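SUBJECT: A protein chain and its fold
Encoding: whole-number codes for local backbone shapes
Chain under study, with its fold:
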Amino acid sequence: MQWHTNLRLPEPIGVPERRWRLAVDDDGRIAALEPLEVGTSARGLNWQGDWLSPAGVDLQINGGLGLPFPELQSEQLPRLLELLDLLWRDGVEAIAPTLVTCGVEPLRQSLAVLAEARRQHHPGRCLLLGAHLEGPFLAPEKRGAHPSEHLCAPSLAELERRISGFEDDIALVTLAPELPGAEEVIAALRQRGVVVSLGHSAADERAARLAYQQGVGMITHCFNAMAGLHHRAPGPVGALLGSPPVALGVIADGIHIAPAMAALLQRLFPEQLVLVSDALAPYGLPPGTYPWDERSIAVADGTCRLEDGTLAGTTLTLLDGVVRLASWTGAVGAAIRSATVLPRQVLGDQRLLTQQLLGVKFQHTLRWHQSPGAPLAWQRNG
């Protein structure tokens, strides 16, 4: 049994900060986690206050290494597995592969390729969770970079056309809840255990509040492709006050959302802010111009835009977002928590962090360190 001591966990804001020690057994798994009494120490490898966390979980990532998830073909399976290995090296344990609005047949083909990739999973490779369908039930005026020709009105029939036979392979669906027919689709998805997220939506405060009561449990790329937080029109974010808890998907690149606004969201909703990368197919590739459906996207400084300047996504890693959010807010533990712990809660894992960590391979967890005047940094343990 090997002991590590004087470490921190990314606990909720407001919980008095504690130091911990952990034991790693002969199989390399975390066998014990014990809080230290204030002012005491314990034998073991001294972490000097560094943080321990699970690896990241990304609920919105659209592709990588040149592969757009909505256009996957069976012959691209080796490249997809290579991408999953890259994501593991980038500190990400699991992703919800995001399929933006596309035709029905390409969508179903992609779901089939993803299902085969899941069957080839092994420890030490990023896990494919259920897919995140971002569309096609979106408000046309808020479609952003989504192709208008593949949008459609929400209905159970259109939902079944897309996911029949893949019902257990869907984790999240982003839709505009104010559209006629959306309420029935939301109810059907929630009955299946699928998380429903408000996104690409023209919902005002009243419509958003109703959607949260109906079971919508997340907001997709908060503030983007939706109404903002205005003092006379609070919009979907303002509707969170007094509503059931709803996760806020935030892209912490400083472009999709200003640093000050991200800090405000964390202050208001510390246990609801969930970091996502919104990375596109050029993730892992150098800056340049790349094909994207029938169009092209330009990548510069980690940001992806269509030829007309429309913001389309990023090529940043999920943990880059943690580093940036921590630098904006100074709340290191909360930033780590937003990419490693809270996404699991969105998908239904309500266990305490200590319970999540017990039994996990120590080398699958992350260690976070911040020297004075330097940005937050991470490494895999072991």
User: Anything to note?
Assistant: Residues 104-119 form the longest helix (16 residues). The chain has a mean pLDDT of 96. The chain has eleven helices and 22 strands.
